[in-house]
Amino acid sequence: MAARLVQGIGAGAVNSQVIGLMHNHFQGRAGARALGAYIAVSGIAATSGPLIAGIALNAGGAEQGWRAALLVSTVLGLVATVLAIACTPRRRPSFAGRPSLDVPGLAMIALITLLLLLPFVNSADSGSTAVACLGLAFLTACLFAGWEVYYSRTGRVGVIVPSVARSGGFALGSLVAGCYFVAVMSLSLLLSVFFQEGLGFSPLRSALVNLPGSAAMAVSAALSPRLVTRYGRASVCWAIALGITGVAATLVCSDRVPTGQLAVVLAMPQLLTGAASGTGHPD
After folding, report:
1. What is the tens place of the pLDDT at every residue in 149-189?
2. In the 8-state DSSP scheme, what is residue 92?
3. pLDDT, greater one: 141 or 16
4. How does DSSP assign 155-194, residue by residue?
């Protein structure tokens, strides 16, 4: 548990830093191309990662397979660290306010996330636990909002800049992005659990079923800068509509198609959701 906590902290820090570096060093069309390349690489990782892990799990068995999968991640992390040190720019970015680390704000964000997840982890408990967690999450969110206003008035840059948060585009974009990540991440996890626990697929076979969607995400992400340049925010609407179509098709296929043919039939909805992810995410 402690190791997973450290891993999660590192993953969250790396992801935000990569996005921040891209926004700081690339603007306009170059920024769209950089984000497209980022999502394309993510698609390649989403394609190769489960396959490598599935091979490791199949080769090592129940006892050693998961250790081998974690070892692969460790090696890749070390390689990425060396490349980051060698390739990232040395120029320090400029800030509108005094650079600082908003530790209380980050702690409250972490607490809100924990309170929202606890009811799902402890699903066997009564509904009173869920109500209590949601109530505490709401109170913490109110405290967080007040803290961020105070923090920004001291001239420091917090987790959320109030002037940016009041922007309609930022608020709507954050809402869309939040709904997108909730849907995509939950669908991916749900399908993996369904294939392995429900249908008895091996990890490698489950990864092969998800392969079309990952490949479609990589290809569409590489093409997305052209779509953004030509069609603007309309491309986001198309991507969302395509993703909804893919999810609906997945639901229909899961309910109607016989189990023996389900893995093959689900390839088409996976292509749609993958293409929507690659097209909409960089936008």
Report:
1. 888 888 787 888 777 777 777 777 778 777 777 777 777 77
2. P
3. 141
4. TB--SS-HHHHT-HHHHHHHHHHHHHHHHHHHHHHHHHHI
What does the domain layout of the chain look like in residue ranges? 2-96+167-280, 99-156
pLDDT per residue as tens digits for the range 49-84: 777 887 888 787 777 877 888 888 888 888 988 988
User: Which SS3 state, helix, strand or coil, does residue 97 take?
Assistant: coil
- Largest interatomic CA distance in the chain: 62
CA–CA distance, 15 with 19 (Å, rounded to integer): 6
- Sign, CA dihedral 224-36-177-89, equals negative
Q: Which of 50, 147, 135 is nearest to 105 (CA)?
A: 147
Q: Cα–Cα distance between 51 and 125 in angstroms, integer?
A: 36
Task: List the beta bridge partners of residue 156.
Answer: 98
Of 55, 56, 72, give the one whose Cα is nearest residue 64: 56
